[in-house]
Amino acid sequence: xxxxxxxxxxxxxxxxxxxxxxxxxxxxxxxxxxxxxxxxxxxxxxxxxxxxxxxxxxxxxxxxxxxxxxxxxxxxxxxxxxxxxxxxxxxxxxxxxxxxxxxxxxxxxxxxxxxxxxxxxxxxxxxxxxxxxxxxxxxxxxxx
Amino acid sequence: xxxxxxxxxxxxxxxxxxxxxxxxxxxxxxxxxxxxxxxxxxxxxxxxxxxxxxxxxxxxxxxxxxxxxxxxxxxxxxxxxxxxxxxxxxxxxxxxxxxxxxxxxxxxxxxxxxxxxxxxxxxxxxxxxxxxxxxxxxxxxxxxxxxxxxxxxxxxxxxxxxxxxxxxxxxxxxxxxxxxxxxxxxxxxxxxxxxxxxxxxxxxxxxxxxxxxxxxxxxxxxxxxxxxxxxxxxxxxxxxxxxxxxxxxxxxxxxxxxxxxxxxxxxxxxxxxxxxxxxxxxxxxxxxxxxxxxxxxxxxxxxxxxxxxxxxxxxxxxxxxxxxxxxxxxxxxxxxxxxxxxxxxxxxxxxxxxxxxxxxxxxxxxxxxxxxxxxx
Lengths: 144, 376
What we know:
The complex is a heterodimer of chains A (144) and B (376).
Chain A: E1 12-17, H1 21-30, E2 39-44, H2 52-60, E3 65-70, H3 81-98, E4 106-110, H4 116-133, H5 137-140
Helix pairs in contact in A: 1-4
Chain B: E1 3-8, H1 14-27, E2 33-39, E3 46-51, H2 72-78, E4 88-92, H3 94-105, E5 114-119, H4 130-136, H5 139-144, H6 157-160, E6 172-175, E7 184-189, H7 192-200, E8 206-207, H8 210-241, H9 244-250, H10 259-263, H11 283-293, H12 302-313, H13 322-326, H14 333-347
Parallel strand pairs in B: 2-4, 4-5, 5-6
Antiparallel strand pairs in B: 1-7, 1-8, 2-3, 6-7
Helix pairs in contact in B: 2-3, 8-14
């Protein structure tokens, strides 16, 4: 049974860095900020450790969007991990664009440990935007 | 400034002229060994061989239109454990040379004591098609027909849209772009090592010769034309394969044999992620994956494999087409990889194999770039 857009609950995989965006998610939780539960977080030590293969795998195995959360540029706990992550996201988005795949389903956001409210705001934004986009065709093709 | 010598070709015998030049390098003891394509005795292939006796150079056929493997891989095998201890010349096509430079940046080859000899490359046919050609024609006929990337439809796709049919980093170039190779071939020294070897071989180098300038003019003209042709080609490719439905259709025939990865000169990992324990799942994991969509294509992760390869190696893709050649099911991999590859390379203004000094995009960054990513 096909889900209608109203019923559609997006599945989103988030790779959150341990030091900033991951900590911000904790802060959002402890301050009881309200946000939708659609993003399934995976904590990583640094956004720079996220190989694009995991983001693609998420999108091909059923995620409607995928996000990478890291420290603000210049603030990486490991000095330059997020700059490298930024390049990888740029490459991934470009490859998707080149091949006619939907690169708007690949997100990145730099949220620091103190930005709990921003984290909650972003969770709302990514969930709503993905809801608007509807179910991903990549996510639903078994034969890929 | 160019430094070059003119090699005159007698009676239109191009292969003989080139071979006698290569042999001279041996005879004058400027080099001790040479990796060079030799005609296979069967007559149906031309294969790279590591030659230590000058007499074998007579069998060389560097312009024969076939490239069974990208030789950068072979040099990787030769220098994996140690550097070569004798001066070894390697005669390479431009795409092989560019792959070699990429591998050097990836610390997979050691260039010490190697002499890079590059050729202006009129392209190659698929290994399967070469016997048909060889039954009727010789490499000289092919070279005399001139550079005809757009016209000769039997040429491999990669050759038809080749952006750099001339070497970018050679010590010595065997040049013929814009020239009449049945009369003259240009031997150009592009580095101190190249100059030293040519002088030692008794050749007096001419500065900015007419022939060298003629070739340079031809290269500049070609560079303008190819940009347009590639643009058109990529637009067409996007119409053919763009979008998940069409992409899924293209890769429907993939059996995930991973021959493309094996043949790819720049895909360098000793153990590929896709044959690592990450993909050794137990039965329960397979079943749980199947449950996600109700059915799981087996072997699993075919599209993931190709998309990942593009992400990992797209920046270093030299467009040699070895992947497409290796595919048992004729999936047009070159098109897809060059489309995605050239567009990511553009993102970083990176040309794979252009220079040893240029760092690989994935290993470098700038503070001010892609600033829209990660912000609102």
